[in-house]
Write a structure and sequence with these properties.
Helix content is 45%, strand content 15%. The chain is α/β, with parallel strands linked by helices. About 3% of the residues have low confidence.
């Protein structure tokens, strides 16, 4: 493993310590990610998501570190896996079970595995030099990245993907339940990460408020769109996209005049059962509608059983994960139901798909009620279904929402403008870091 890592790192270029940096071309980033593995990114054709880690060239070399990639891959493995994603980006995938121990010793196995990964990351990063550590959430990624950043004496950048307090209040679900078993521990970790982060990347006011609540300094919070992570296929004008007949057939989705779609993880925090209830209301009112529940998760089986019990199993498709290129072809023909959605909310709007969303997390900031879609009270799935029905009954309203949704999404993403803002925020962060280092 040591030889493989050393060779891969050498092929990615010689790195220098932050104190020696003279040119932006020498900046290197460690990106800690719990959400995706290399296999998942390849399967979804979501490579643009990882190319965005370079921040528009600000960090020429990136090491993507996935502390427990064996979990999303559902694959038992004992060794860290090192691969090259691109010429300038390595993927270093750790494991939660590096020792052949019985299941009841999993906590010990996990701890040993993570300490081992941390130790050789520090060894190789110190030898070659790393400029900063980026974490894609303030929970386990945040804790792992915080320790790594402090051991390397480099700045920590934290991304806030969700309003975790609201999620807990609504569902009682923790962000990383398998790792942090209690709410107090989760809050303590967020407080440690946010209060020590040198930059917090927040796409909406609600998540910026979460960071502030847990100790993020005002000067460290950067309000930036996360549109840079979107696959480029979503930026194509909806009118120029290929008709989706072949894609619908590929995923076993029946042809229909109208579609309702819900895209996201099928787990309790995303409220997919509410979307299914709204679909039932619409399908009962109109025979020309088919529902699409795109995604998978621990609720997938029970959702299919719910559809059977509701008598709509023949009118709702469960295609599982849909790759980005296929999703981009389907979305322009759908009305999107969003109990709680991440980037798929932006993808839907770029496709001109009118959205009916819960007033939850950042959604009410993004969807302009009555102008680009509808926002309904959180938990009111009947209102969600009724508003979707209103859109389907009024073609002029649907066209107006479609046009406004795409226009608003393009303004929100604003790739060039946000790249300039991001580079300025990173420059400011490094300036603060160096001033602090001089004082020390």
């Amino acid at each position: 493993m040591e030889r493989r890592l050393s060779g891969a790192l050498r092929s990615a270029g010689r790195l220098t310590l932050p104190e020696q940096q003279e040119s932006p071309a020498r900046r290197r980033l460690i990106y800690v990610d719990m959400a995706y593995s290399l296999r998942i990114v390849r399967d979804r054709h979501h490579e643009d998501f990882w190319h965005a880690r370079h921040s528009g060239g600000y960090f020429p070399i990136v090491w993507g570190v996935h502390p427990i990639a064996d979990v999303p891959d559902r694959e038992l493995r004992r060794r860290t896996r090192v691969a090259k994603f691109s010429t300038n980006q390595l993927v270093i995938e750790g494991t939660s079970q590096s020792l052949p121990l019985p299941r009841w010793l999993l906590p010990l196995n996990f701890l040993v595995s993570q300490v081992r990964l941390m130790a050789w990351l520090v060894k190789h990063a110190k030898r070659r030099g790393v400029s900063a550590v980026f974490v894609n959430d303030p929970l386990y990624s945040g804790l792992f990245g915080l320790i790594l950043a402090r051991l390397l004496s480099v700045p920590l950048i934290a991304f806030v993907p969700a309003q975790f307090d609201e999620l807990y209040e609504a569902t009682g679900a923790l962000g990383n339940p398998a790792i942090f078993r209690t709410r107090k521990v989760e809050q303590a970790v967020m407080r440690s990460v946010f209060s020590r982060a040198d930059m917090v990347f927040a796409a909406a006011e609600s998540v910026a408020q979460l960071a502030s609540k847990y100790g993020a300094r005002p000067e460290a919070i950067a309000r930036l769109s996360h549109g840079k992570y979107l696959a480029r296929c979503h930026f194509v004008d909806p009118s120029a996209r290929t008709p989706p007949r072949a894609v619908l057939s590929k995923f076993g989705i029946p042809e229909a005049s109208n579609y309702l779609i819900c895209v996201g993880r099928q787990t309790a925090v995303k409220h997919p059962k509410d979307a299914l209830g709204a679909m039932k209301l619409v399908i009962d009112a109109r025979a020309d509608v088919v529902g699409i529940m795109a995604g998978d998760g621990d609720l997938s089986a029970s959702l299919k059983e719910d559809a059977r019990m509701l008598g709509i199993e023949s009118k709702v498709a469960f295609p599982g994960l849909i790759d980005q290129a296929s999703l981009a072809l389907i979305l322009p023909h759908c009305v999107t139901l969003s109990p709680l959605t991440g980037m798929a909310l932006i993808e839907a709007s770029l496709a001109g798909s009118p959205v009916v969303a819960y007033d939850r997390d950042w959604q009410a900031e993004f969807v302009k009620d009555g102008r680009s879609g509808f926002v309904v009270p959180f938990g009111d799935w009947r209102a969600m279904g009724e508003k979707a029905l209103e859109i389907l009954k009024n073609p002029a309203l649907r066209r107006r929402f479609s046009s406004a949704a795409r226009r608003q999404a393009l303004e929100f993403v604003d790739l060039e403008g946000n790249r300039a803002l991001e580079h300025a925020a990173l420059d400011s962060m490094f300036d603060r870091w160096m001033r602090k280092a001089v004082r020390r």
